[in-house]
Design goal:
This protein is mainly β and 219 residues long. It has two helices and 13 strands. The protein is 5% helix and 37% strand. The relative contact order is 0.22.
Length: 219
């Protein structure tokens, strides 16, 4: 069932009154304790100015030349539900990461299957992008594989990450998927409606995998 619950990515905007009092000078002298704010990691393949890199708005905090925001209108992130209305997973920020400050830990709800991803309200052309990069990590038995799908108006394509080097051995695996592999599996890259959908078969509640460093690259 494709019924889903959107994850709202909100922004808090702060404004200052013209007649606001001056800040307490003692507050300006405060310094964060060592390690309070972790340093962001550049990752195994940091972005270089001039390189084409597309941030899909999720699971990536690094630099990019192009950005498609999850705006909860033209682009949504969904956690899919079962037919009886149960979310198939929950998502937690985890400091164990490949790049940035955190990765996302996808935690099973114990449902017969797990699924979720980015869905666009209108098709977009991704045919100029050549590679999808992402990093996965799990040590749980039920995640012997994770499937990544791309849905398009011309057909859908699902690829097993085990075919690209993923193993549930408790280590981070940096995966690179040629976009032509999605195309050969049935996707029309000129009319993409869901650029990234992750799925797995059922398993015990609480088992999890981490995901980080998701982006597309091109010439």
């Amino acid at each position: 069932m494709r019924a889903a619950v959107p994850i709202i990515a909100g922004l808090t905007l702060l404004a200052c009154r013209a007649d606001a009092p001056a800040p307490d000078p003692t507050l300006l002298e405060w310094e964060a304790p060592q390690g309070y704010y972790p340093e962001p990691l550049e990752g195994p393949d940091p972005w270089v100015a001039g390189e084409r890199r597309l941030n899909l708005g999720l699971f990536y905090e690094g630099g990019a030349s192009d950005f498609m925001a999850i705006d909860n209108a033209s682009a949504n992130y969904y956690i899919f539900e079962t037919t009886d209305g149960l979310l198939t997973y929950t998502q937690i920020e985890d400091p164990d990461r490949i790049e940035g400050l955190v990765s996302s830990r996808i935690v099973r709800s114990g449902t017969p299957w797990l699924g979720g991803g980015i869905v666009w309200s209108a098709a977009r052309d991704l045919s100029t992008w050549t590679l999808m990069a992402l990093s996965l990590k799990s040590s749980d038995e039920s995640f012997a594989t994770v499937t990544i799908s791309m849905e398009t108006e011309g057909g859908d394509a699902a690829l097993s990450m085990a075919d690209y080097g993923f193993d549930n051995d408790g280590q981070w695996h940096q995966l690179v998927i040629p976009m032509t592999d999605f195309e050969e599996a049935g996707a029309d890259l000129t009319r993409v409606t869901a650029p990234f959908v992750m799925a797995a078969v059922g398993g015990p509640a609480g088992e999890s995998f981490n995901i980080d460093a998701l982006y597309l690259t091109g010439p």
